[in-house]
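Progress note, sequence design subtask.
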């Protein structure tokens, strides 16, 4: 094997490398420390680590991929070959892996995972390591057809999107359970499963496999958390962001807001009321509409705050729940670290999360119209809070945007053309039996027909 060239090995196919078993022993166990096999495994691990250090973030991964598969072929990494079936330890030809993702995985726990395999000698492993998930990368090279393709920075981003790094840090901090707002997560979430309790129900030779499979398959056991993908997008710094929809429940406003990202120019059109309930608990639509108070407010908000809000709205669908770093877990007393060589199928399964909601929540739509006639981007999010961490952070950012409003003469005229391309997201029929399309269209009309006060000429002396 040592004399084979990498190209010859690749020609045989990586599938063959993993399919061919190194031994027909009844069980796969860790190598004994200081044996010839153990020392050679140390050397191969060190060599692969050096290769990963040298791999550029935008480099070719084929040789690194081959090296990883060869590492898994070593007898001392037999457990690693059986325990994990997540990428990159199981390679999916249809989903190319970028060097940035592979380097991040190796740095954040892949290396620790392999090193832990050499700590499990005959004295018994004191702990095992579960490697992190392979992170998704949003980058120009990898995602040419992505909905955000026009905004994606290259892997070697340089200054591209550099100002969004502080926004990323703030967002991911807000995603952590300890920082979530009350009512936006399961505050009575059950504890992680007792994996050893389930493992004891298995024959002795399958107990480690059952225990390890339970840990790997349960997000709570693996400390999974919500994160943004790797990579950056360019700062959305111009154009109009339009947000439409109902805010509130018993007391509410049907609202339309238009924000200009470069100047902070803001047009705010709302129609507010309170639900009038009839004796049976149903909504009296006519009485509710009769009590409406409508108006237009104009002025300026912080351009930086509105850009951060749009950045979060653009990336919210990309927020994913992953294990971001290696997790070291003590091995229960008396549990032998071994894997049946004749695999009889994986045990355990993935446990899903829980989603919540409230009748006080509504749906808002947003549309971004970039300058120069570029294709608009749009989406929806739940207001005023959400169990989806990206949406909930967007709500916090929107509150911050609105808190910076300074009423006055707008710097730019009403974006009439852009408003004509937006649509209201609808309201629960229980709260609005006849819908709110006419009300929302009236909010557009109020802005289109808005006249600036004396001594105010938007686009000339505004702002």
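Output:
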């Amino acid at each position: 094997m040592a004399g084979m060239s990498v190209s010859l090995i690749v020609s045989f196919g990586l599938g063959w490398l993993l399919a061919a078993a190194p031994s027909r022993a009844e069980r796969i166990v860790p190598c004994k420390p200081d044996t010839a096999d153990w020392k050679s495994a140390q050397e191969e691990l060190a060599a692969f680590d050096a290769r990963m250090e040298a791999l550029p973030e935008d480099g070719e991964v084929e040789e690194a991929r081959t090296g990883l598969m060869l590492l898994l072929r070593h007898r001392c990494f037999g457990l690693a070959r059986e325990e994990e079936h997540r990428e990159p330890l199981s390679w999916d030809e249809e989903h190319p892996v970028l060097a940035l993702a592979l380097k991040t995985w190796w740095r954040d726990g892949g290396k620790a995972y392999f090193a832990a395999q050499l700590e499990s000698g005959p004295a018994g492993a004191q702990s095992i390591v579960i490697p992190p998930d392979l992170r998704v990368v949003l980058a120009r090279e990898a995602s040419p057809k992505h909905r955000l393709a026009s905004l994606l920075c290259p892997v070697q981003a340089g200054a591209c999107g550099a100002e969004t790094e502080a926004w990323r840090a703030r967002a991911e901090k807000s995603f952590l359970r300890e920082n979530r707002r009350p009512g936006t997560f399961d505050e009575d979430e059950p504890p992680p499963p007792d994996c050893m309790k389930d493992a004891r129900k298995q024959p002795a030779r399958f107990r480690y496999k059952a225990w390890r499979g339970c840990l790997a398959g349960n997000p709570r056991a693996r400390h999974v958390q919500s994160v943004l993908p790797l990579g950056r997008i360019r700062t959305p710094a111009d154009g109009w962001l339009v947000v439409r929809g109902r805010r509130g429940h018993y007391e509410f406003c049907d609202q339309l807001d238009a924000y200009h990202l470069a100047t902070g120019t803001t047009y705010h059109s709302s129609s507010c009321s309170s639900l009038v309930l009839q004796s049976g608990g149903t909504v009296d639509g006519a009485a509710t509409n009769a009590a409406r108070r409508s108006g237009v407010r104009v002025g300026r908000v912080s351009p930086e705050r509105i850009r951060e809000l749009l950045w979060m709205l653009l990336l919210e669908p990309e927020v994913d729940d992953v294990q971001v770093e290696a997790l070291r877990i003590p091995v229960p007393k008396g549990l032998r670290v071994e894997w049946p060589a004749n695999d009889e199928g994986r045990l355990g399964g993935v446990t899903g999360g829980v989603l919540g909601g409230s009748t006080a929540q509504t749906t808002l739509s947003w549309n971004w119209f970039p300058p120069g006639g570029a294709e608009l981007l749009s989406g929806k999010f739940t207001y005023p809070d959400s169990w989806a961490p990206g949406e909930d952070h967007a709500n916090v950012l929107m509150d911050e945007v609105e808190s910076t409003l300074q009423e006055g003469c707008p710097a730019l005229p009403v974006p009439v053309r852009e408003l004509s391309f937006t649509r209201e997201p609808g309201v629960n029929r229980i709260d609005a039996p006849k819908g709110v399309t006419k009300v929302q269209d009236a909010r557009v009309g109020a802005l289109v027909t808005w006249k600036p006060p004396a001594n105010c000429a938007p686009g000339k002396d505004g702002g």
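The longest helix spans residues 36-54. Work on this subtask will continue into the next period as scheduled.
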